[in-house]
Amino acid sequence: MSSIYSLDALKFDNSFYNKLPADPVINNNSRLVNAACYSKVAPMPFPKASLVAFSRDMALELGLNPTECMTQRFTEIFSGTHPLSGMQPFATCYGGHQFGNWAGQLGDGRAINLGEIINKKGQRWALQLKGSGPTPYSRHADGFAVLRSSVREFLCSEAMHYLRVPTTRALSLLTTGTQVERDMFYDGHSKMEPGAIVCRAAPSFIRFGNFELFTSRNQIDITKQLVDYTIEYFFPHLGKPSKEVYLQWFNEICLSTARLITEWMRVGFVHGVMNTDNMSILGLTIDYGPYGWLEDYDPAWTPNTTDAGGRRYAYGKQAEIAQWNLLQLANAIYPLIEDSTALESALENYKKVYDIAWRDMMTSKLGLLNFEHESDEILFQDLVRNLKNTETDMTLFFRHLSNIEINKDANTDDLLPLIQPAFYAKEIEPDAANDIKTWLLQYLKRLKKDDRPDAVRRQQMNAVNPLYVLRNYLAQEAIEQAEAGSYSMIHELQEVLKNPYEEQAGKERYAEKRPDWAKHKAGASMLSCSS
Ligand code: AMP
Ligand code: MG
């Protein structure tokens, strides 16, 4: 007899599949798909697939006993080899603006949706395999994913969840037992790499690009169907569709996107490819490709080599680009609303909300009670200037800053050593050092005004300033070990990143700043879209 926590007890309710128009053609040849939200396509079987890692918490969230994930049957299901009864595999049709230009039809080129599970709490979780073979949307590519990019997506999406950043999740990471050819830097040096599949989970994987595609083809009836579906299933509190409801819906998307970017900025995450096809309608971080974590605080930094020229998707540009992406979504749903003034004011409101959220986020990162206009605006600006001028590790800076003590008599020479571990250079230029000392004194003065106990402030700061993030070089080390057949570092990182705000004895190595060797290493500081 199977338990209620077994694979066979998973309950499917495939709303996307059942409610939206399907492509009548059933084959996985690359092609333009007209007037359909998705195409039915079976994942490719991988009889030699094997489990690398799974997320216990994600399994529990789905209502699965984690021991089920260690069975051969689990591997067969989540490698796409033997889908479970109740699964109805399909790839969705979407378009998108890539690097600022309309790219036409894109779609799930290497993602295959399995269906939606309703868990014991009544929550909907769509499951999707990434890397399980060609679909009608694969264009000129193969539909596979390699181990290196799959490790990065698996580890980072779960880590983001524990950092409290809205994100898609990951249930499992498997190798396919086959090799995939990749030219990592598009420079004519291709090599064979192990293939892998991540099973991702989210309430929905709908992107801005899903709506854009149908409007670009003047199929407004399908845009409307998709909007109505999205509201019914994911924004039910908005009620029955009407122009007012569509507008309110857009406003909510603006707010959740503002929150998402604020959270990225808080933890130092750079998405790297904020194309509109990589923007979730639910305000989740989606599509972990050439993302990176800020090491030295540099707003112009982008991990994506494809973006090195324009730096469109640099850390400091993310809020502005999100607004540009929201504008593309506004254009896509305009025919349903026909009120450009209202849509423009929602976009302006996004900016206002983001600015306030960023300010509040900085207030909490610095452990201040409230934002005070006269003093704090300047305090933040001066801090950003200092962090930029001196190569400073963002993550370590905020952790060490929390150790400042307000009742100790402020001697500038005592203050600087507090944050010294966050600097990349051993010696700091005298002018820069003076600038930082002045800032530290200003900051101390500001803390004295709040006059809170050090321990209370420190606790508050450490709850928003993570100690452990998936540093680019750590992910790269785990990948190299995995490619050599050892998965223990993946498992250890998984555990450490579950408690990113708490100091963990014996795990100091995961909180260290980037070593010199990693500064210009492929994979650790430079990434391409190739995955
Ligand atoms: P991304 O840059 O990962 O957001 O992908 C952009 C588009 O390219 C999406 O439509 C992907 O499905 C597609 N794509 C990326 N890599 C592959 C691949 N290996 N095979 C098929 N399609 C891909
Ligand atoms: Mg994508």
UniProtKB/TrEMBL annotation:
Domain of life: Bacteria
Protein name as catalogued: Protein nucleotidyltransferase YdiU
EC number(s) given by UniProt: 2.7.7.-, 2.7.7.108
Native organism taxonomy: Bacteria, Pseudomonadati, Pseudomonadota, Gammaproteobacteria, SAR86 cluster
Catalyzed reactions per annotation: L-tyrosyl-[protein] + ATP = O-(5'-adenylyl)-L-tyrosyl-[protein] + diphosphate; L-seryl-[protein] + ATP = 3-O-(5'-adenylyl)-L-seryl-[protein] + diphosphate; L-histidyl-[protein] + UTP = N(tele)-(5'-uridylyl)-L-histidyl-[protein] + diphosphate; L-tyrosyl-[protein] + UTP = O-(5'-uridylyl)-L-tyrosyl-[protein] + diphosphate
One family name in Pfam for this protein: SelO
Amino-acid positions noted as binding Mg(2+) in the UniProt annotation, renumbered to this chain: N278, D287
Originating species: SAR86 cluster bacterium
Encoding gene, per UniProt annotation: ydiU
Required cofactor names: Mg(2+); Mn(2+)
Keywords of the record: ATP-binding, Magnesium, Manganese, Metal-binding, Nucleotide-binding, Nucleotidyltransferase, Transferase
Catalytic center residues: D277
Nucleotide-binding found in the keyword field: yes
